[in-house]
């Protein structure tokens, strides 16, 4: 039987050419796999037909938008996933869902190999191949751009020579990856890191310098997951979409950073993730209200590790699963409402309400009705500061180690 290869297919120039390119180079039959993660653009039927017209023997298309929103975006929100405190993992979380469908298609069509269109310089090749190795250890991986010398110029030439039904003329200066969680833009003049982004870089958000009137939204969460906007129950996908629209109109979620790739390169990235960033602001504040102090402090460390693991392409790793268990357990009481004003590039929390919160008015108030026994504070402070106090006395006692006390003395002389 002829060997079969499943190809992660976007419908664009490079992967359309890759269909014929791979079959010529390997003699295998190519099955195109297109996964909708909310990237917009053409519908799946158009993409399926193009794959077949470009020589694929089969086309597998999947609407994975709800799956992506529920099983990939929501865990990211629960973990407040921001790589380098800035990037909400847009591309990093879409690769594992695509991998799941690639492996499913390989099984369905009896393929031995999976192909993707990544170059050898980025994170996405790692995410695809580590994921495929994990879910389908028997499958081989190839990357035509990286392994079969498919350059962009060759792709254009190939498409014209074979009269492939794709637009090859318009030259987009950027490399763009987008889905419902956000949009990543790189290359072109952005590679000079002194250059500011021009207006045409953005698509999911409007200029925050000229915002419409403020938009006040109430986000309802149930166990860390948003379930309603302004009292209307919606699916995870619908919530992200509506927040993309509303927060995007206010120019929220534009990010411009130099980022550390796993492969050791620093790269300039522009992101826009209006919905994700606004939802994260709301989620974090609800955690402030509902998580116990030590739990919250420790979760920050777990969130960061979770984010790095996911960025590094280890979505299906055992440690990632362990950390998911921790994060999920912390979300048990992260339920309630957050009211935010979205305006001019910012989402600002103005109100919080939770039946499972730890905020206790009678403990916090400085007005009548104070239930906090202030007389306990003194003893607490004495004991809390005791170890430092004992150490200071030791420093004083031991000759030659009076630096810290000398500093204090000098300070009091100056004042
Ligand atoms: N640097 C980001 C990441 O590694 C975005 C990659 C986007 N991919 C692209 N082909 N533009 O997650």
UniProtKB/TrEMBL annotation:
* Residues binding ATP: 8-16, 117
Q: Which residues bind L-aspartate?
A: 119, 123-124
List where in the cell it is found: Cytoplasm
Q: What catalytic reaction does the record list?
A: L-citrulline + L-aspartate + ATP = 2-(N(omega)-L-arginino)succinate + AMP + diphosphate + H(+)
Query: Which residues does the UniProt record annotate as the domain Arginosuccinate synthase C-terminal?
Result: 174-390
Main location group: cytoplasm
Determine the domain of life of the protein's source. Bacteria
Q: EC number(s) for this protein?
A: 6.3.4.5
Q: Name one Pfam family in it.
A: Arginosuc_syn_C
Pathway field: Amino-acid biosynthesis; L-arginine biosynthesis; L-arginine from L-ornithine and carbamoyl phosphate: step 2/3
User: Which keywords label this protein?
Assistant: Amino-acid biosynthesis, Arginine biosynthesis, ATP-binding, Cytoplasm, Ligase, Nucleotide-binding
Domain Arginosuccinate synthase-like N-terminal positions: 4-165
- What does the annotation say about its assembly with partners? Homotetramer.
Similarity remark: Belongs to the argininosuccinate synthase family. Type 1 subfamily.
- The name under which this protein is listed is Argininosuccinate synthase
Instruction: Name its species.
Output: Citricoccus zhacaiensis
Q: Which gene encodes it?
A: argG
